[in-house]
Design a protein that fits this description.
The complex is a heterodimer of chains A (about 160) and B (about 110).
Chain A (H helix, E strand, L loop, with lengths): L1 H17 L1 H7 L1 H6 L5 H9 L4 E3 L4 E4 L10 E7 L9 E8 L6 E6 L7 E7 L5 E9 L4 E8 L8
Parallel strand pairs in A: 1-8
Antiparallel strand pairs in A: 2-3, 3-6, 4-5, 4-7, 7-8
Chain B lengths: L3 E6 L9 E9 L21 E8 L2 E8 L8 E7 L4 E9 L4 E8 L4
Antiparallel strand pairs in B: 1-2, 2-5, 3-4, 3-6, 6-7
The chains are: A alpha+beta (about 160), B mainly beta (about 110).
């Protein structure tokens, strides 16, 4: 929840400060609404300086290679990690790489979930990667990604 | 206006100790703030489902922060370990702070 308010604040400032041409073109209200979240910013904001481990061995992704419609791309991820009371996956986040706003969903888990699994539908404007980040309660971050070919973009 | 949504347990029969999957569908727009109305050329404002919280017998078991890259009418599935009969209460909040709530009973067999 605090992550959300943080990103809102910083990006609102950045949009007004840096993207003045857009502001003149569309008027003030539009500039406030169109908050772009580049992939790098979304990733940096999630990592906060921590290093990433390759999670392709423990994560199994079930994402179609070429979905019919970019507006609804099913993303299914299972993280093979024991959900013990003191060592468990505490967050799964789904990001895209080339949308205008690249944050899709952030899911907070507890050991009460029993397994680390998430299914969600994601919007994609063009062919790009889906990046899945899983964080344990001790701060280890695993990353896994898959390239998805989108023929018909869903307004991302 | 109360938000519309559906919550259900996907497994047909389950016992205490099993991990079941719960499915949430919320009927809601996910306007990114970048799309324009084709006729008037006006931009649709940023309007999306913001937060979903699932509470099982008084304990928060899942919390979702959604953003505009989630598709329209978001569909979410998440796991849940059944520990006792009870209820799963799911609260939705959108970016305009409108709320909705759905409840599903959890009735393990045997």
């Amino acid at each position: 929840m605090e992550r959300r308010s943080f990103i809102k604040g910083t990006f609102a400032l950045a949009t007004i400060g840096l993207l003045n041409p857009i502001l003149f073109r569309h008027g003030l209200s539009a500039a406030e609404d169109a908050i772009e979240i580049p992939y790098k910013d979304a990733l940096d904001e999630y990592l906060r300086g921590k290093k990433v481990e390759d999670g392709s061995k423990i994560m199994s992704l079930n994402i179609p290679d070429a979905p019919e419609n970019g507006a609804v791309v099913p993303v299914e991820v299972t993280v093979d990690y024991p959900m013990k009371a003191d060592d468990y996956i505490s967050n799964i986040t789904v990001l895209t790489t080339k949308n205008k706003a690249n944050k899709a969903i952030s899911f907070d888990l507890t050991p009460a979930n029993g397994m680390a699994y998430l299914y969600v539908n994601v919007k994609m404007g063009q062919t790009q990667d889906v990046v899945i980040l899983a964080q344990t309660n001790k701060g280890r971050i695993f990353q896994s990604s898959k390239n998805v070919r989108v023929a018909l973009g869903g307004c991302g | 206006m109360e938000l519309r949504g559906v919550v259900k347990i996907l497994d047909q029969s389950y016992k205490v100790g099993d991990v079941v999957k719960a499915k949430i569908i919320v009927i809601h727009k996910m306007d990114t703030g970048f799309t324009k109305d084709k006729e008037s050329g006006k931009q649709f404002p940023r309007f999306y489902m913001k937060e979903i919280t699932a509470t099982y017998n008084g304990v928060i078991v899942a919390h979702f922060d959604l953003d505009v890259a989630t598709s329209q009418n978001p569909v979410i599935q998440f796991p849940l370990k059944v520990t006792a009969p009870g209820t799963l209460v799911v609260d939705f909040v959108n970016s305009e702070d409108e709320k909705g709530q759905k409840t599903v009973a959890i009735t393990p067999a045997g």
